[in-house]
Design goal:
Helix 4 runs antiparallel to helix 5 and helix 14 runs parallel beside helix 15. Strand 23 and strand 24 form a beta hairpin. The chain is an alpha/beta fold. It folds into three domains: about 260 residues, no CATH class; about 210 residues, Aldolase class I (TIM Barrel), CATH 3.20.20; about 130 residues, Alpha-Beta Complex (Outer Surface Protein A, domain 3), CATH 3.90.930. It has a seven-stranded mixed sheet, sandwiched between helices. It contains 24 helices and 27 strands. The radius of gyration is 27 Å and the shape is globular.
Length: about 700
C-alpha cells in the first residue's frame, strides 16, 4: 500500500509526458524503448516523467468488438468501402472469432507480429490506417477534417490520454522514430493544443533527424502545433527545453540540436556532442505498461551508430551528427543493467539496442551473462560477419539468445558489392548454416530489389534463401525504398538509378518527402511486382511455421483412413467472389480461390461434424472425383482430426451420404482444383 501511494505521489509531481504515437504495427505487443530511455535521463536530473504508448492503445481501439464488425463489413473510413474478400476484412472476421487468442491467461497483450496465432491478422487491419501524404497536404485547410484525420482524433479522445495527465505536466515529448507515425503525431499535436494550449509540444526521433532542412522548414512554418523539434541525440536538448519550461521560459534558439519556429522565422541550431552512453542512466520502464504486455522486451543500449556504417541504402548512420559516428557501451555495465531491470520488473527478455552488434562484443557479453548466472533471453540486430565463428555463435546460444535479426538482403554478389554490404553469397550461406548448427535462431530481412537487381537475379536469390529455409525461423521482406538521406540518395546514378521529378513518394519507413523519386530500369514494373509477390509468399510460408503446434491436428494425405475428420472451420474464412469461393487459412497464411463447383461440397463438409475419408468420397457420384476433392482439402490443410465427435457420427454421415450422393455431381478434376492467390500488397490511405 505504501509503495502504491509513493508511486501515485511521484506521478502527481510529473512535469513531462513522453508519448509513443501510432502507427508502428511491428511494435504491437512490445515496449519501444525511446520513452523509457528519455524518462530515465530526465529523472536522473530531477525531472519526473510519465509515459504513454498510444501505439499499443491504438491496437486495443481496433480490437473493440464493434470496430471489428465494422471492418468485417468493409467500412474503414467514410470515404472507403472495401469488398468482403479484401484481406483487412477477412482478417477482422477471423480476429472477431479468435480475439481471445490475442491475450494471455492474465489478459496481457499477445500482439507481437511474430507470435503464433492470429497476431498477424491485427497487422493486416491496422495497415489500413497507415497514412501517406506529401508536405503539400499539411497546407490544406481541411486536412484535419478528412475522414482519416478524424479517425485518429476520435481515437485520441477514446484513449483518454489528455484527461489522464498529471496536473503539473507542462511539456509533452512525442517520439517519432518511424515515418508512419508522423501524420498521427501531427494529429495528436493538434489534439493536444486544442485541448491544452498551455502545454509545450516537442517532436523528436529519427524521422525528424533524417528530414532535410527545407522540408523541416515547411513543417515548422505550416504546423504551429509543434513548439520545437529535437534532432539527433535527444537527451540533452530535451532536458534543456524542459528546464526552460520549469522556469517559465521559452528560448529554443539557445538549445543545440533544436529546430523551431520562433519570433516569426525558422531556426536550426547545430548539434553538440551527445551524451556518453557509458554514463547514461538505466532506462526507466513504466511498470504499468510492462504489466500490460505478455512478452515485452526491455531495451538496453549497446551502441549508437554502426561499426560497419557503409551500407549505401542505410540512413541510420546519419542519426548522430555532432557526435562520434560510433559509440559503444561497456559489456559489464550492459549486463549490470539487465540484472537491475530483472530485479525491478521480474521480466527477463531483452532487446539489445544497436544497429549491429559486433562479434567481439557479442562474445564478451555472452561470456558475462553466462558467468553471472542470469536466466534471461535476448535478441539483437547483427550483420553477416566472418568473426561470428562457430565458437562465438555457440556462446551466444548458451547465453540465452532468443534470435539475431540479420539484414542479409540478397544473395547476388554483384549487388551486395554495389551497395557496400560486407557479405557475399557464400558468406551469407555459411553464416546461416553455422548459426543453425549452433542453435541460434535467425530472423532474416530481405530486400528483393536492391538497386540494379534483375528479375533473374532476384529469383535466384529467392531460390538460394529457399534452400536454407530450415536454418531460420522468421522472415521480413522489405521492397527497396530509396531515400534522399542515404548514400544512394546522394548519388543515385552511381547505383544505376534514374531520378525523376514526379512520381510515387510513398515510403515504408521514413517521412515521405525523404523518399527519392527514381526508376530502376533493371526490372520492368510487371517483373518487380511479380518478384515482390514471390518474396511475400515465401515470407508467409516461413512465418506460418510459428503455428506448427496448432497445425499438428491438420491433415496431410498420409493418414489412417479410418480416423474421423472434420473441416478446420475455425481457421478458415470463406466469402463468395464472382460466383466462386475465396478461402483464407489463417494458420497456414494461404489465400486461395475455390471454384464454384465446390460450393455444395464445402457446404456438405461444413455441416458434417465428423466423417471418414471413405465416407467423404462416397458422397460423390464419381469416387475418383471424391478422391481428388479429399486430396485438395488435405493439401490445403482444410481438414483436421476429429478427436471428440459432438454428434453421432455414423448417423450424421449416413444422412449426409444419402442426401448428397445425388447432389455432388462435379464433372472433372480440373473443375475442383484450388487456385493459390499470392499475398497481396497493401495500399496506404491518402490523407486527402
Amino acid at each position: 500500500m505504501i509503495e502504491m501511494f509513493n508511486k501515485q505521489a511521484q506521478r502527481l509531481q510529473a512535469e513531462v509526458s513522453l508519448v509513443f504515437p501510432p502507427l508502428v504495427t511491428t511494435n504491437f505487443g512490445n515496449y519501444y524503448p525511446s520513452t523509457a530511455i528519455l524518462s530515465g535521463y530526465l529523472k536522473s536530473h530531477g525531472y519526473s516523467a510519465v509515459q504513454a504508448d498510444l501505439n499499443e492503445k491504438f491496437a486495443h481501439y481496433l480490437l473493440q468488438v464493434d470496430m471489428l464488425k465494422r471492418f468485417a463489413e468493409g467500412s474503414f473510413l467514410e470515404s472507403m468501402q472495401l469488398p468482403a474478400e479484401a484481406i483487412p476484412c477477412l482478417s477482422a472476421r477471423l480476429i472477431h472469432r479468435h480475439r481471445h487468442l490475442l491475450f494471455d491467461e492474465h489478459g496481457r497483450d499477445r500482439f507481437r507480429p511474430n507470435a503464433p496465432g492470429p497476431a498477424h491478422l491485427l497487422f493486416n487491419v491496422a495497415q489500413m490506417y497507415h497514412l501517406v501524404f506529401d508536405p503539400v497536404t499539411l497546407q490544406q485547410p481541411d486536412f484535419y477534417d478528412t475522414s482519416a484525420a478524424r479517425f485518429y482524433i476520435d481515437f485520441y479522445h477514446w484513449s483518454g490520454y489528455l484527461e489522464s495527465l498529471p496536473p503539473k505536466i507542462h511539456t509533452i515529448g512525442i517520439s517519432v522514430p518511424m515515418g508512419p507515425q508522423l501524420v498521427p503525431a501531427l494529429i495528436l499535436a493538434r489534439h493536444i493544443k486544442r485541448q491544452r494550449p498551455d502545454i509545450t509540444v516537442i517532436f523528436g526521433g529519427p524521422t525528424l533527424s533524417l528530414m532535410n532542412l527545407k522540408d523541416l522548414d515547411q513543417l515548422l512554418t505550416t504546423v504551429k502545433d509543434i513548439d520545437a523539434v529535437v534532432r539527433f541525440d535527444g537527451e540533452l536538448p530535451l532536458l534543456r527545453l524542459v528546464e526552460q519550461r520549469r522556469h517559465q521560459q521559452w528560448e529554443p534558439t539557445k538549445v543545440p540540436a533544436v529546430s523551431s519556429f520562433f519570433d516569426g522565422e525558422v531556426h536550426h541550431i547545430p548539434p553538440e556532442p551527445g551524451p556518453d552512453i557509458k554514463l547514461l542512466p538505466y532506462g526507466d520502464y513504466d511498470e504499468e505498461m510492462m504489466a500490460a504486455l505478455a512478452e515485452p522486451e526491455i531495451g538496453v543500449i549497446q551502441a549508437r551508430g554502426c561499426y560497419w556504417g557503409k551500407c549505401a541504402y542505410c540512413d541510420y548512420v546519419e542519426l548522430y551528427k555532432g557526435s562520434s559516428p560510433y559509440r559503444t557501451q561497456l559489456v559489464d555495465r550492459l549486463v549490470d543493467e539487465m540484472e537491475y531491470q530483472i530485479g525491478i520488473h521480474g521480466r527477463s527478455r531483452f532487446a539489445i539496442i544497436t544497429e549491429s552488434i559486433p562479434p567481439l562484443f557479442a562474445r564478451k557479453m555472452s561470456e558475462a551473462i553466462i558467468a553471472s548466472g542470469l536466466a534471461l533471453s535476448w535478441s539483437s540486430f547483427a550483420m553477416v560477419d566472418e568473426r561470428f565463428t562457430s565458437e562465438v555463435l555457440q556462446l551466444i546460444a548458451q547465453s540465452g539468445c532468443d534470435y539475431l535479426e540479420i539484414g542479409i538482403e540478397s544473395m547476388t554478389d554483384r549487388v551486395l558489392k554495389l551497395v557496400e554490404k560486407a557479405s557475399t553469397k557464400v558468406k551469407n550461406q555459411n553464416f546461416v548454416r553455422d548459426a543453425a548448427a549452433a542453435g541460434v535462431k535467425l530472423k532474416l530481412n530481405l530486400i528483393p530489389d536492391l538497386p540494379s537487381t534483375t528479375y533473374r537475379e532476384a529469383l535466384e536469390s529467392l531460390e538460394e534463401f529457399g534452400a536454407l529455409e530450415d536454418c531460420f525461423t522468421f522472415i521480413g521482406v522489405y521492397p527497396f525504398e530509396p531515400t534522399r538521406s542515404s548514400k544512394i540518395g546522394h548519388n543515385p546514378s552511381f547505383y544505376l538509378l534514374k531520378t525523376e521529378k514526379t512520381g510515387n513518394q510513398e515510403g515504408q519507413s521514413q517521412y515521405p518527402a525523404n523518399h527519392l523519386i527514381c526508376q530502376d530500369p533493371a526490372m520492368t514494373a510487371t517483373e518487380r511486382q511479380e518478384v515482390h509477390a514471390k518474396f511475400f509468399a515465401f515470407r508467409e510460408h516461413i512465418n506460418a511455421r510459428r503455428n506448427i503446434e496448432s497445425t499438428r491436428m491438420l491433415m496431410l494425405t498420409d493418414f489412417d483412413s479410418s480416423c474421423l475428420l472434420r473441416l478446420a472451420d475455425e481457421y478458415l474464412d470463406f466469402v463468395e467472389v464472382d460466383g466462386n469461393l475465396q478461402c483464407y487459412h489463417y494458420l497456414t497464411r494461404k489465400l486461395f480461390r475455390v471454384p464454384r463447383y465446390w460450393t455444395e461440397a464445402i457446404a456438405s463438409v461444413r455441416t458434417s461434424h465428423a466423417f471418414s475419408c471413405d465416407e467423404l468420397i462416397s458422397w460423390f457420384v464419381e469416387p475418383s472425383i471424391g478422391q481428388i476433392f479429399y486430396q485438395q482439402l488435405s493439401e490445403f490443410r482444410m481438414l483436421m482430426r476429429c478427436t471428440e465427435a459432438k454428434v453421432d457420427a455414423d448417423k450424421n454421415n449416413y444422412a449426409l451420404k444419402a442426401s448428397n450422393r445425388n447432389r455432388l455431381k462435379i464433372v472433372t478434376s480440373e473443375q475442383i482444383a484450388l487456385t493459390l492467390i499470392q499475398p497481396p500488397t497493401f495500399e496506404c490511405l491518402e490523407a486527402r
